[in-house]
Design goal:
This protein has two helices and five strands, in the order βαββββα. By secondary structure, the protein is mainly beta. It comes from Bison bison bison (North American plains bison).
Length: about 120
Amino acid sequence: MNKIFPQGDANGSAAAGSKALPGGEGDVPQSLPGFLVAHCGDPASWIYSDQMCDGINNCGDCSDELSPVTTCPPCGPGWWRCPSTVFRYCSCIPRSLCRDHVQHCFDWSDEYSCPGP
């Protein structure tokens, strides 16, 4: 599972267990080129840029998948667009979860409308 990397709070202290200190040695976001880092809806959290728009809720608040933080393309061919009940996904679920007799969409469209894998 992908992790969120806290940058620290406004007082400059890092979150518990975090080794990154803003402006200090080991501050991963500042030691990497900016195009490799993406901020989440919570400005104190970040992910690697390649985790944006990958269908997975990497930020924990879906800000890496939904507006206004990011603009992702529509679901790809292996995905079904729906309001997900699964924390791991935001607005699309893998079609492999369709028609498996388990609700993955709030509106049950994964069981009744999705054509399946």
